[in-house]
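Why run this: before we spend reagent on co-expression, it is cheaper to look at a predicted model of the complex and decide which construct boundaries make sense. The entries below are exactly what would go into the expression plan.
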Amino acid sequence: MKGIWNKIIRVDLTTNNISVQSLDESTWRRYLGGSGLGAKLLYDEVNPKVDPLGVENKIYFLTGPFCGSAIPTSGRHAAVTKSPLTGVFAESDIGGYWGNELKKAGYDGIIIEGKSEKPVYIYIEDDEISIKSADSIWGKHTIETDEILKTQWTDDIQVMTIGPGGEKMVKYASIMTDGKDSRALGRCGIGAVMGSKNLKAIAVKGTKSIEYHNPEKLKESIREIAQGVRENGKGLNNYGTAGGVIGHESYGNFPLKNWELGRWPEGAEKISGQRMTETILTGKYRCKSCIIACGRIIKIEEGPYKGVEGAGPEYETLGMLGGMCLVDNLEAIAFGNELCNKYGIDTISTGASIAFAMELFEKGIIDETTTGGIEIKFGDEKVLIKLIEMIGKREGFGEILGEGVRKAAEIIGGNAVEYAIHVKGLEPPAHDARAYNGLALSYATSNRGACHVAGFTHGYERTNTFPELGYDKPHDRHSVEGKAEFVIKFQNLMGVVDSLKVCKFGISTGIKIKSLVEWLNYVVGWEDYTPEELLMAGDRIYNVKRLFNVGCGVSRKDDTLPLRHQTFKREGEGVVVNLPPIGRMLSEYYDHRGWDEIGIPKSEKIDELNI
Amino acid sequence: MKGIWNKIIRVDLTTNNISVQSLDESTWRRYLGGSGLGAKLLYDEVNPKVDPLGVENKIYFLTGPFCGSAIPTSGRHAAVTKSPLTGVFAESDIGGYWGNELKKAGYDGIIIEGKSEKPVYIYIEDDEISIKSADSIWGKHTIETDEILKTQWTDDIQVMTIGPGGEKMVKYASIMTDGKDSRALGRCGIGAVMGSKNLKAIAVKGTKSIEYHNPEKLKESIREIAQGVRENGKGLNNYGTAGGVIGHESYGNFPLKNWELGRWPEGAEKISGQRMTETILTGKYRCKSCIIACGRIIKIEEGPYKGVEGAGPEYETLGMLGGMCLVDNLEAIAFGNELCNKYGIDTISTGASIAFAMELFEKGIIDETTTGGIEIKFGDEKVLIKLIEMIGKREGFGEILGEGVRKAAEIIGGNAVEYAIHVKGLEPPAHDARAYNGLALSYATSNRGACHVAGFTHGYERTNTFPELGYDKPHDRHSVEGKAEFVIKFQNLMGVVDSLKVCKFGISTGIKIKSLVEWLNYVVGWEDYTPEELLMAGDRIYNVKRLFNVGCGVSRKDDTLPLRHQTFKREGEGVVVNLPPIGRMLSEYYDHRGWDEIGIPKSEKIDELNI
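The model came back. C-alpha cells follow.
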C-alpha cells in the first residue's frame, strides 16, 4: 500500500507504554481510514458497556489515505470513542492542519488508552513519541495552550487540545486545533473523554513525505475536478457557512427559540454571513489542501465585545447561539463562539442547552431558585454569555446545563423532558427535521444521534443533484416515497467520505464518487477498487457503528425524532407545514438496511458485509 | 333531582368509619355519574402522586342516573382509581347486575378509602352497611366467593369480588361480578387496588325503587328506540362479540402473534363466535336492562377442558388468548378465560403478557433459565394455561408477567422493551392501531392508556355512521384529515356514555344523543338539558381525567403508540398497509382539545369547562 503508512500509534496512559502497530491491508481496504476505521477498531477493542469516562474507554484519532495529498479538502482527521453525552458511538470530524502534520510525522492515527495519573500531553516529532507533564498548560484555555506549546517547542507544531471544558468533563466538551483559527472536534463530548484520561493535548511535528502509487495520474485527476469545486464553492468562500443563515431561515430550516418559532427574518439578517462580511470579517481561512476556504477570520475592534479575534462563527453556531436563543447581535455571538472555543465546548450543544433553559424559564418550569438567581430570557445576550462561561467552568447552573439537555431534563424533573430536544442524547444542529423528511430520518438513524452530516442529505433534498446515486433532480424534501433508500445511499457515501477524509463541502461542490475511487486507486495502488466496493464499504462502516450501538442497548426505541419535531407544527410565511412521518420511513429504512424490525442488523447482512 | 338518590357511601377501611354523603346538584349535572363523576372525585380527593397500592389511594364505584331504569343497556357501573399497572388514571366499566342492586339499595356509589388490617368484605342491605371478616372467602376464586356469600346470606345478593389475582396484587387484577356469568371490571388492575386494601368483596342486596321525573314519557321514548336497538343488535345476539373474529381478522384488525403476523384466517375461523355457536354454546346472557344479550353461556362436556361452564370468551379474550398467542383451540381459550375470571385477572393484559413472553422466547431474549424451565412457544395451549395459572397465583415467571409488559420488560432487560406493546403501561386490546388511524389516535390519547372503548371510534371508521356528530358516512379509517376532531367528538360522547352508564353497544345499535338527553331530562328532571350541554360534559369529563394524569406526570411524551404499530408494517391479503402518522394527528388533536403543545389543558380551557 502507498499513501498509507500503516502505522498507528498506541499510547497507554495507565502504563505509559507507547507502541506503533500496523493493520492488515484488508482492514484498510474495508474501512479505509478516518471514522470508518476508528469505528471498526472501537467495535473490536472496546466493550460497548464501558463507562465513557472510565479507564476502559479509548479514543481513536485517525487520518485518511487522502490526508497529506493535494486532493481538495483532504486535510482532515476524525476522532472516535464512546460518548459521555449519548452513551453510544461517537465520532467527530475536523479540518485544519493537525491531521496533515500527524501524517507527515509518519503515522495514520493514534489510539489513546487508559488514564494518566497526572495531567499530561503527548508530543510527537517524527519517530519520537513522548508523554510529557501538562503542568504548564492544565487549566489553560485552548488558544493559550496552543501558544504555550508553540513557544515551548516551535511554531511548526500542530496542537490538538482540550480546554477547561474537557478537563472538567463537560459532557459536550470539544477538542480544538489550529489555535486562534479554532477548528473543533465538536460533537459528542470527545473532549470530556480526553479530560477523563488526564490528557490535555497532542502536539505533532512531522517532516516526512509519503509516496503515492501514481502521483502523475492523481495530479491529473485532481486537476480535472478542482476548477469545478472552486467554482461551486464560491458562495462558501464569499460568506462562509454563515452565508446560509438568511436562506435557511426563509423556509423554516433555521432553528428558532428552541425550535418553537416559525420565522425570524429580521434577526437572521442581522446575524447573517453577509452582515459578517460587511462588518467584522478580516479574512478567510482554509484547511490544509482546501480550495474553497469557507472559514472566517474576524476581528471586533470596538464596543462591548472588542478583542474578539480569530475564527468567526459558523452557520451552526449562528443557529445555536443566535436563532435558538433569539440573540440577534452578531458580535455577541462571535464573542460567545470564541468563549466556547476557548473553553473547548461544542457550540451546538451549548446553544441548545441554553435555549432549553430559556424555554424552561419562560414556561415557569425553572426559576431563579434553580438558576442561582439568573433570569434566563430568550434574546438576552448577556445571559447567553454568562451561561457559556458557567458551562465552560462547570459552575452553578452551568453544571446542569453541561450535562446536555437529556440529562439536564432528568435532573430538573417535571415536564422539563418535553422541552429537551435531542436524539439519543445529542442535540440536533441548526437544521429543522420538519423542513426535510430525509434529514428527519437521518436524525433518527444517525449513529451518533441527531446529526446532519452523517447523511448530509438536506442539500440533495432541495437544490443539489447526485446523478451517480441515481438522483438527477433533488429528492423532494417532503416526500416519503423512496426517502429511506435515498437516506441510506447518502449515509453510506458520507461514511466513506468521513473515512477517506475529504470534506462534505468537497462533495457538494463537485467531487464525484468516480473521483474518490480513482484517487483511491492512484494513491494506494488498489487498481481494481470500484464505486460498488466504495459504497459497500460505506454500508459496512455504517453497520459496524450500528453494531457498536446495538451493544450499547440501541434499538428502534432510540431511532426517533424529538417529540417537538414530530408533533409541533412550524408555521410562518414561506414555511411548508410538515411533520415527518417517521414511523413509515423507519419501517422502510430497516427493510432497506437489512435490519430486523427493531433495528438490529440481521446476521445475513453482517456476513454479506464481511464486518 | 329524581333518578339519582344522591347518596354515596364512603367506607374508610383504616378506621372502619362508614358514612353516606351527597353532592351538589351542579356536580351531578356536570359529571353525571359513572366514571365521569368518579374522575371528578378522584381529581378532587386523591393526590396524583400517591402509590396506587398504598393506603392513600381510593376506589370509586359509581352507577349512573340511568342505572336501575328500563333504559336499554343501562345496568352498568364504573370503578375509578389510580392504576397500579399504569400509574395514571384508571377506570373500568362493567355490565351485569351489581350496579342495579346497589341502586336498589338506595345508593349511587361507594367510595373505598384506607386499608383494612385484616381481609374484609362489605355487606350492604338497604340502609345497613357493615364491614365483615373475609376469613371464609379470602384465597377463594371469584365464582367460589360468589357461591359462599350467597350461601351465607341469600341468593338475592349481588357480589363484586376479587380473586387470588387481586389479593396478590397482580398488576392487572380484575374485579368480577355475577358469579359464573363472570362480568369483569377488567382493565387497569383495579382488583389489585382492592387487594391492597384487604377488601375481598362488596355484596349488596337492595329492595328500594327510585322515582323518575317523567316515567311515562321515559317509557315512550325508550319504546321509540328499543326496536331498532334490538334489530341492530341481532348480530351481537347471535354470535356475541366473538362474532367479530372472522371479520376483524380478514382485514388486519385482529391481533396476531404479539402484533407481528398479518393474517391467520384458519385460526380465526376455528376460534370464532360462529364456531362457538355451533359447538359449546348453551345459552345467551344479558346484563340488567339489556335488550341485546351479547353475553355467551357455554359448557364443555368432554375432552381435556371438560367442566368449563358459564361465561364464554368475548371477542377481546379470543384475540388476546387466541390470536396473540396463536392458540387456535376454542376450548382451550374458553378454559383459559374461565381461569382468568376465577383468578380475577384481565384477559386482555394476561394474553398480551403471555404473547410478549412467547415472542421474547422465540427471539432468544429469554430462555428456560428465566422462565423456570418452561419452553414458551407460540401456539402452545398448555403453556398458555400454565402461564395463566402462574400469573393468577403470582408464582415463578408468572410474577414477572403479572407486572404487565412494560414493567416485565424492564425486569427482563436487554431488548425486551422493544417487544412490550403498550401505551402508558396498558396493553392494547384486540384491535390493531394500524387498521384505523382514529383508533391509533385514541390509543395514544386515551386517559387510561391503550383503550379502544374510550373513543370507541373504530366502528365509525369502517361501517357505521353518526349523523348527530356530523358523520353521515364512516370516517375513512386511513384518512388523517379531520381525524383528530373525529376522535375528540367520540371520546367526549363516550365519556358521557360511561357516566350516564349505558353500554356502547347500545350506542352502536341505535341509541342517539337525542335519546340520552331526553332520558336524562325525563329521569332527573333537568328539563333544559341539551345535546350541547351533554357533549360539553363529555369534554369536561375527558379533561378532568387528563388533569389527574397531568398530575401523575403525563404529557406529550406519553401520548404515543407502541413502536411496533408505528414502524412495523402489517401485511397480508386484504390488509391495507398503514402506519398511523401519529405526530401529525397528535398535533391537531392538541389544537382541537385546547391543550398546549405538550398536551397540558390550557387554563382558558379549564375555565371554559368549569371543572
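The radius of gyration of chain B is 22 Å. The mean pLDDT of chain B is 97. Bring this page to Monday's planning discussion.
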